[in-house]
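Tutorial, part two.
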Amino acid sequence: MKEWRFIMAEHRGTLLAFTLFIAMFVIYVSNHPAGFTPNVVQTAANKGVILALVAMAQAFVVLTAGIDLSVGMIFVLCNCVGSYVLGGAPGQVGLGVCAVLATGLACGALNGLIVIYGRLQPIVTTIATGAIFFGIALWLRPYPGTIPDFAADLADTFTGKVFGVVPASLVFLAAVVLLIWVPVRRSVIGRTIYAVGSSEMAAYMSGMPVRRARFTAFVLGGLMAAFGGLFLTFFTYSGEASLANGDNYTLFSIASVVLGGVSLYGGRGSAIGAIFGALAFRAIGDLLFVFDLDPLWQPLFQGLVLGLAVTFGAARLFQIRNRLEMFT
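Running the prediction step on this input gives:
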């Protein structure tokens, strides 16, 4: 019984995010004119998965007690890169996918190197690098566009349905969790990421690879943002250096990780919780359209949700009597 109580307490944030997502999605499909159909689920899944991937990017960094304000700009940059390289013969498309992912990895690595060896705060570093990444994206795509021979068939495969029912984007998201998050979570680096978020000094004194863990967190964050940019390219068939997209996805990723039970003070939560937080946040946004809320009020409503999410994530601090209780 005590073991089950411990497991429930450990994954409380994830379970709450999952419950919120189910509730919001049921309300959404119940009020959608088309009802609960494969096409409605597919569209909602495609939009939700894009945010979920960016939220995973944010979660890796937040777990180390940092924050990455450049994930939205990496996401936009990779979208712009994808609009140039995802075309031609199958071999060329494969190389293009690798180029998009390499772009995200390089951006994450740059963030990690500056934070670790420049000894700068992540929030300051990523504000600066985010501006650089957006500048490159704007140079690549001053106007929205794509290449003439864009790989539409590949895009349709990843944004379509498997067996005509299951959204392919959800299958891809599950594969990312199984192939990236689960192995990292169970590795020495993964445990060190949590330890750094709980107490970097204690992790260092214990002989854990602190620098490598922080660097890995930023690199994986860049990779997840690149996956998000890749999916946006598949979804829209084009690339656009949109400042609004970059800023919105950065803010929404923070709201998603908090809704998913990831502590902004590090060391608690999981990428799976961030995924459900993202899906819940996206479902809330879809409700605004279903209920035909005035577009002028939608940013206000989303801002309130973001504020409540951050407040809810910090609420436990009012119950803390000493610092050790933050990690129990």
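The chain is about 75% helix and 0% strand. In part three we will examine how such features are distributed along the chain.
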